[in-house]
Write a structure and sequence with these properties.
Layout: E1 2-3, E2 6-7, E3 15-21, H1 35-48, E4 52-56, H2 69-86, E5 92-95, H3 99-108, E6 112-115, H4 121-130, E7 134-137, H5 149-166, E8 174-177, H6 186-194, H7 196-200, E9 207-208, H8 214-220, H9 228-241, E10 245-248, H10 251-265
Parallel strand pairs: 3-4, 3-10, 4-5, 5-6, 6-7, 7-8, 9-10
Antiparallel strand pairs: 1-2
Length: 278
């Protein structure tokens, strides 16, 4: 995948996507109330090692209240324009599922689309037309699965990816996300995380977002702001399974997890690495 002259060669290392919420009701409690705060958050994440920053303006927490395209755009677009001006070469993703919002965000400087509701035809067409890579996430309104949860997730994602490719989007620009915490109960999430190797085996780039999720809270008994170590366990396991991108709130901490895991699993080494003592 190429974004603003930068190449993302899948399989060589794991990339970090930082989360920037321009919404007042983010589940993680880190929503940026205004453009300045959002840009500051994004720049901090880039400095901490984020390869991509993902900017969203509509909360998708359990029980969230949907907002219309006008409200979403009013929150999102000023932050995108300001961030693009402050970081002209940074890869920026936009988290939306509304075609009109996506098109406006693309014009404002977004490079990649992150859709929590799969690959609706209108979004696929917009990405193909604008030559935009996209993240396709599995989601469903009710967390009921008549068969194995991973079988259903993979069937959904494989079909969606095939439609994207038929529409003219290169396969290496279609990232598949199993949707941890979306339309899934805690046991569903654990089952999906246990079989990430099957997601990788579909042959497309992959992404997961486990950061600070409620399943981690249920397992650890910790509040949203104290789930970095629980998140780290899922990130390390994702790297071991071959996941390409991890979407996280705590970039500096998870960067270290990714680097050590990549060194063990993928043979990655930092620039200037030598076998001598430090």
């Amino acid at each position: 995948m190429r974004i603003r002259g930068r190449v993302f060669p899948w399989g060589r290392r794991t990339y970090l996507m930082g989360i920037v919420n321009v919404s007042p009701d983010s589940f993680s409690g880190d929503g940026a109330a205004d453009t300045g705060a959002a840009v500051a958050r994004a720049l901090e994440q880039l400095a901490d090692g984020a390869d991509i920053v993902d900017v969203g303006a509509e909360s998708t927490r359990p029980g969230y209240h949907p907002i219309d395209a006008r409200t979403e755009s009013a929150r999102l677009l000023p932050a995108l324009r300001a961030l693009r001006a402050a970081a002209p070469d940074a890869p920026i993703s936009v988290d939306t599922f509304k075609p009109d919002v996506f098109r406006a965000a693309r014009s404002a400087g977004a490079d990649l689309l992150n859709s929590i509701w799969g690959a609706p035809e209108a979004l696929v067409a917009a990405c193909a037309e604008t030559m935009t890579p996209l993240v396709v996430m599995h989601n469903k309104a009710v967390a009921v699965y008549e068969c194995d949860v991973m079988d259903e997730v993979l069937g959904f994602l494989d079909e969606a990816a095939a439609r994207c490719v038929r529409a003219g989007i290169p396969a290496d620009h279609v990232l598949l996300d199993p949707g941890i915490g979306f339309g899934k109960l805690p046991e569903h999430n654990i089952a999906v995380l246990r079989r990430l190797d099957r997601l990788v085996a579909l042959g497309f780039p992959t992404l997961i977002g486990t950061s600070r999720k409620s399943t981690i809270g249920k397992l650890t008994g910790r509040g949203v702001g104290a789930r970095a170590f629980g998140t780290a366990a899922t990130v390390a396991l994702a790297v071991a399974a071959g996941i390409d991108v991890v979407r996280v709130h705590d970039v500096a901490e998870q960067r270290d997890v990714v680097r050590v895991s990549d060194a063990i699993v993928r043979g990655w080494r930092p620039d200037g690495w030598s076998e001598g003592l430090p």
